[in-house]
Amino acid sequence: MAAERRAVNCRPSVPRRAGAAGEQPAIEQVVCDAVVAAMRASLRDGGRARETTARLDSVLRTGPVEFYFGDGAVDHAAIALARLLEAPGDRAGALAALRRRPYSIGCQPFLAASLRDEGCLAAALGDVRGAVRAYEHYLALRSNPEPALVGATDSVRAELARLRAMVR
Questions:
Q1: Rounded to whole angstroms, how far apart are CA atoms 125 and 92?
Q2: What is the pTM of this model?
Q3: 3-class SS of residue 28
Q4: Residue 8 CB-half CA count within 13 A
Q5: 112 band by pLDDT with thresholds 50, 70 and 90
Q6: CA-based angle 100:93:55, to the nearest 5?
Q7: 143/121 Cα distance (integer angstroms)
Q8: How does residue 7 score in pLDDT terms, banded at 50, 70 and 90?
Q9: Domain-by-domain residue ranges, the chain?
């Protein structure tokens, strides 16, 4: 988990000092705390996993960021939520979570991963047009992939061809 937190600039919040009474944590920190709690619960305590995943979903549904420059912390939360929902079989909930991903004026470091997951879930749920749209966007972002991503990009390209044949 420490690697995931470093990758998205997300650290669990530390207890506040005595002089900070009434201070609210930044919304990005609230999101990070909810992601970490849900991921921990999913690994350790199945009963709390539903509760913490529902809390993460609630935090993200409130539209936590109005003007966001995109450091990855909030962007990753939608992917984490989708994967937490998909694990016990809630594919429709996972797809909805991905489609609520934030868009920002800055860097969106996880957009390609989000689009790949969206395409996969949409195809699995029979939303062929939605899957095609997500995969086309993914491939536009990966038009010249680095060597480590060529295999994944080729896989998406092949799946997109299969889906397009279904739509015709």
A1: 7
A2: 0.81
A3: helix
A4: 25
A5: very high
A6: 75
A7: 22
A8: very low
A9: 1-13+25-109, 111-168
- Smallest CA-to-CA distance from 28 within 64, 56, 63 is with 64
Torsion of CA 20, 23, 29, 35, to 10 degrees: 100
Place of tokens 């991963």: 113
Three-class secondary structure assignment of 90-115: CHHHHHHHHHCCCCCCCCCCCHHHHH
Whole-angstrom distance, CA of residue 165 vs CA of residue 120: 16
How far apart (Å, rounded) are the C-alpha atoms in residues 149 and 96? 26
Q: Is the pLDDT of residue 5 over 50?
A: no
33 contacts 58 by C-beta, under 8 angstroms: no
Integer CA distances (angstroms), 68 to 33, 61, 77, 97, 102, in order: 18, 16, 14, 18, 9
Is the pLDDT at 2 greater than 70? The verdict is no
Predicted confidence at residue 160, as pLDDT, reads: 98
